[in-house]
Amino acid sequence: MLWAYGFFIAGVFLLRKPMKFLLTFICWTSLLSAQDVLTYHNDNARTGQNLSETILNLANVNSSSFGLLFTVPADGKVDAQPLYASNVAIPGQGTHNVLIVASENDSLYAYDADNGANLWTISVLGSGETPSDDRSCGQVIPIIGITEAPVISRTNGPNGAIYLTAMSKDAAGNYHHRLHAIGLATGSELFGGPVEIQATYPSSGPTSSNGYVSFDAKQYKNRVGLLLMNGIVYMAWASHCDIPPYTGWVMAYDSSTLQQVSVLNVTPNGSEGAIWMSQAGLAADSDGNIYLLDGNGSFDATLDSNGFPVNQDFGNSFLKISTSGALSVADYFEMDNEQKENSTDTDLGSGGAIVLPDMTDANGFVQHLAVGAGKDTNIYLVNRDSMGKFSSANNNIYQELPDALPGGIWGMPAYFNGYLYFGPVSGPIYAFQFQNAMLSTAPVAQTANAFPGVTPGVSANGSTDGIVWAAENTNPGVLHAYNATNLQELYNSNQASGGRDRFGSGNKFITPVVASGKVYVAFTTGVAVFGLLNSGPPGPGFDPQPGTYPAGLSVAVRSTTNGARIHFTTDGTEPTRSSNLYVHPLKITKSTTIKAISINNGVASPLSVGTYVVQ
Predict the structure, then answer these.
(1) Integer Cα distance of 359 and 9 in angstroms
(2) Lowest mean pLDDT segment, chosen from 148-162, 263-277, 559-573
(3) Are 447 and 482 in contact (CB under 8 A)?
(4) How many Å apart are CA 400 and CA 360, to the nearest integer?
(5) DSSP-derived 3-state class of residue 583
(6) 374 lies in which domain range?
(7) pTM exceeds cut of 0.90
(8) 88, 557, 581, 615 - which has most CB atoms within 10 Å?
(9) Are 99 and 69 in contact (CB under 8 A)?
(10) Residue 102 CB partners (closer than 8 Å, separation 6+)
(11) 202 C-beta neighbours (distance < 10 Å), count
(12) Do residues 509 and 565 share a domain?
């Protein structure tokens, strides 16, 4: 059990490393009480688990009790994981649980997470600018704006701050990346932002000039979820496909001033080595170290006396980056067949890393572990205190599971209660179990259905009622829920008759967000919101809730009585039996006030009035 496990670890650390225990205990107990989802995959360790879910459980997540409540729209693809902040005071609008949604059209939305009402919407484009084109790469299409998961601070600024990077193109054809800090309650820019993202790094590589390589905005996009740690925002950069020239950049900015405080290039004297990670976030441990999986690129097989590449090029490596002082590579693991993996694009960089909770091995020693996987089908479990570095003869790491993930990983796993859940391409979700700080060499459970590739998430109430959630990237998309112990399916959004729970075309790399009894699933034109069907919308009225939206919104008009006929007006007059009959979703192209009645067995009942403002 998780609580017993936590107190056992506490005893070990009190005997051996009191301060280390304190940091670890604070980190993991905070997961048990957190109500917000402020960062990618729930926490800086990137476990993907919400251990405070007391509403959804193994008994009520089924097609009879659980389903689609409503959707909220966006004006472009929602590639970024949505975020959830509870009890936010919105000036003039009261207190709301807030859902933050970012689009590739460089728009940012704040919605009421419980009823879908729009609280504010902003564009982060500069004057006269548009989102970037796709840069002749099919990875993020048709435009590039906000791609990475933002991160939220509840304490910065007057009411909290949302940090994000946005790509754009100006009228002269120049490309820009900017770091924004947006007020959580108001949508306003904070701290004098935004700031233009620029960088140089010492280099003697093929793209260097006067001893430095420069960050060229047009060659990069940000797919990696932002990390906020100790007041610093960390980001990493992917290229557009493998279109040269590019190298591997990691940057750090002060969250209060938006000033750049450190830069690291992990292939400074070579080429390639960008950081994709299928939109997973940079992971961190309680000592302030960052972990990432680098893409294919230059690696110097000649090592210095400390076992590091002589030219500081770490392409295709599992990296540990120190944030003490200037960013620097503190340790790494590189597989023995790195040359083959780099040359064939079978690299580690398609997956994301998890920092695991401390575990006690069979000899009673506490192990500090992290895990990652990529295209080569292997699972790599590393000791964070000694990751293994490089040997052409063998992989000197804590544990390796060869060919454990047929199809490879384009995403990242989730962790819960001693289990790791991986979703490889064209395969099921596999559950691997830890025992004595070692991972089972074969899955202990798997789902009955396969996925195109998936990043799962987990909800639970402490160590009970564990549910694995996964969004299937199909058309329409499908939300799945599984018992975390045996991966038996509890629910999927295709089960209900009449397409009740279908929500639109799925999107790659999306991980469901679970908070306070609801599940938020991004798709290509918005976010679908699932929950218990007797706990809120749909009810009488409208879906989404009235508010301010872009033109082209589809409004569903609902009644509490199944089969009732709904008549409506949009000109301010009171509806009657002879008014427009609602049959299909109503398209809103201009500011409109909808008035509706529902008629059941000849009895007319008024529905609430909905005013939609088009901006």
Answers:
(1) 8
(2) 559-573
(3) yes
(4) 18
(5) coil
(6) 34-537
(7) no
(8) 88
(9) no
(10) 78, 80, 82, 108, 109, 145, 146, 150, 164
(11) 13
(12) no
